[in-house]
Each structure stands twice: as structure tokens, then as C-alpha cells.
Design goal:
Blueprint (H helix, E strand, L loop, with lengths): L26 E5 L5 E5 L10 H4 L14 E3 L5 E2 L2 H5 L9 E3 L19 E4 L4 E4 L6
Antiparallel strand pairs: 1-2, 3-4, 3-5, 6-7
């Protein structure tokens, strides 16, 4: 079955059929944690047998930062995460662009924090801010 590019995008009805991207067979409409649909590859190529990090969800991994989608600027292909790019032989690091990540802290009195102060709680599937105390 060939993916239909205009079924995943909100602005598809306003694009002409000639401006629609041609999709590869392995690209699917994926809705990530931001709830925005995008076409991306979420499986490994047939030559690769270890696809658990590619196919796992952010909730299955204790470091969701590793699960950020990446887009290859060389091929124009978007992958569910870095591991999907790796197992599809699209691994030139200078051509892999990670998607932007926004961290929103809902805690009173917190104005600034460092990523080193964040810890992912797999039970609650949420980030927690670990306070550091200066001695």
C-alpha cells in the first residue's frame, strides 16, 4: 500500500497535487507526544535485526531525550528517533537534525533550571526537577 501524503497534514487541502511530497513505502503518519501528525519512518530496514530502540515508545525508555524525531537534511527523511535513522543506514551525524524540544516546568518558584537537574520518572512518565542544595 502506498502512503497518501495529503492524509496526514492539516494544510493538505490547500496544496496542489503537484506540490505534495512523494513518500517512501516505509513512511507512516505518526502522531507523537505533541499530538501533531507527521510522516516519518518508525521501523528498521530489512537488513537490520535489532530494532527495539527504534520501535519502542518514549515511555519504554528511561531517557526520552533519545526519542526525539530526527530529519536527515541529506535525504529529507524524518525518523521517529535517532535509532531509526541508524538502523536505516542514514547515520551521517552532520545531516541529522533533531526536532526542537520544549520543556515546560509547572512548579512554583522555579525560574531557571539546568537539564542536568531533570530526571525522568518512568512510573509517572513525567520529568521531575531535582533540587540541588549549595553547601
Amino acid at each position: 500500500m502506498t502512503p497518501v501524503p495529503w492524509k496526514c497534514c492539516f494544510d493538505a487541502e490547500f496544496k496542489s497535487s503537484t506540490s505534495r511530497a512523494k513518500l517512501k513505502e516505509d513512511e507512516k503518519c505518526i502522531i507523537d507526544d505533541s499530538h501533531v501528525p507527521a510522516y516519518m519512518v518508525d521501523t528498521c530496514g530489512s537488513r537490520y535485526s535489532g530494532d527495539s530502540l527504534c520501535t519502542s515508545s518514549a515511555a519504554d525508555n528511561d531517557d526520552p531525550l533519545l526519542m526525539i524525531p530526527v530529519t536527515s537534511t541529506a535525504t529529507g527523511t524524518t525518523y521517529k528517533n535517532y535509532f531509526c535513522a541508524l538502523c536505516n543506514d542514514d547515520v551521517d551525524a552532520e545531516h541529522l537534525e533533531p526536532w526542537n524540544l520544549e520543556v515546560v516546568v509547572r512548579a512554583r518558584g522555579v525560574k531557571e533550571f539546568s537539564l542536568t537537574q531533570l530526571k525522568y520518572n518512568m512510573t509517572t512518565q513525567a520529568w521531575t526537577l531535582v533540587e540541588t542544595i549549595d553547601l
